[in-house]
Amino acid sequence: MHIVLVNIRVKVERIEDFVAASAENARNSRKEAGIVRFDLIQQKDDPANFVLLEVYRTPGDQALHRETAHYLTWRDAVDSMMDGPRKGLTYRSLNTPDEAWGYGMEI
């Protein structure tokens, strides 16, 4: 698995717009063959702080995702909503077998 956590800080007055655009991107992203999991997470005590949890089968699947129409639409739409650049970090799972991420499961 290729796991990416993207940290995003959103302008307070744009939170609702960001959530709407990101939810649409997440719905479409989950339809991609190379994506195992794609979640939008909002910090409870700081609602302007978000994380995208993206789990891909391979790093190449992330590259393919970045070429999709829904990603490009999301990227351009949320650019002015962000309060600073987004930061993505990649991870690997040390104790979760690949099948536990939902391989082949509808999520």
Automatic annotation (TrEMBL):
GO molecular function terms noted in the UniProt entry: monooxygenase activity
A Pfam family per the record: ABM
InterPro entries listed in its UniProt record: ABM_dom, AI-2_Isomerase_LsrG, Dimeric_a/b-barrel
Protein's UniProt keywords contain Oxidoreductase: yes
Residue intervals of the ABM domain: 2-90
GO CC, one annotated term: cytosol
Name listed for the protein in its UniProt record: Antibiotic biosynthesis monooxygenase
Coiled-coil region list: none
Keywords for the protein's UniProt record, in alphabetical order: Monooxygenase, Oxidoreductase
